[in-house]
Amino acid sequence: MPGFRGTMGGTMRDSRSYAAPAALLALVLAGFVLSGCGAAPSSGQAPAAAKTESTASRSPAAPAGLHTSTVKVKGDETWVITTDKGVIEIAFYADKAPNTVASMIELTDRGYFNGIKFHRVEPGFVVQGGDPLSKTDDPGVGTGGPGWTMKAEFNDIKHVEGSVAMARTSAPDSAGSQFYLALAALPQLDGQYTVFGHVIKGMDVVKQIQVGDVMRSVTVRRAQ
């Protein structure tokens, strides 16, 4: 991906402090998620493309303010993603990431995610989607968002298989609509990304997802 580099400015430790090759590899893999809402170039800044395109399709490089959703969350909502491979159901951590959950529900209720593709699959690591630019296979896919970003809600929820979290650039408060589903335990990401949900049904579907698979519909199921 253009601008990707294994170490993102200010977010990764110096590789000289890691003697084990496996640990270094894990940290390099973490960079794939860091570049999720806009692949950061070597300068560590937001991509130039994000500064020139409409914020309706690409996340702004330097948002004037951070989004706070007005959606009221009860805590019993379930996120339902329907794909050609099957259905994925996700329970939210509304108590741990209240604004993130409310914002994702807000977008879902607008129909925002319908037709968006999963644009990144890293076996044994993550499946990632949520970029509206993927609908048209825009070459800038990976930099798109809803036109706003949110304040990070880093929490104590661990990355395990099925965890769902917000992708972002090297800037903590840069998450918009892109999210990833963990395909394994990823302790190297703990505390650095907003984990806002967990797959409760359809993990077998998640493991079948390939790049280009479409979210045919994304809805919020509310308890009656």
Task: Produce a short descriptive summary.
With 224 residues, this protein is an alpha+beta fold. It contains four helices and eight strands, in the order ααββαβββββαβ.
Using the 3D structure, state the CATH architecture of the domain at 74-221. Answer: Beta Barrel
CATH level-4 homologous superfamily of the domain at 74-221: Cyclophilin-like
Percent helix, as a range, is 10-25%
SS summary, helix count: 4
Beta fraction of the residues? Answer: 15-25%
SS-derived structural category: alpha+beta
For the biggest β-sheet, the strand order reads 3-4-6-5-7-2-1-8
Question: Low-confidence segments, ≥5 residues, pLDDT <50?
Answer: 1-29, 37-63
**SSE order in H/E notation?**
HHEEHEEEEEHE
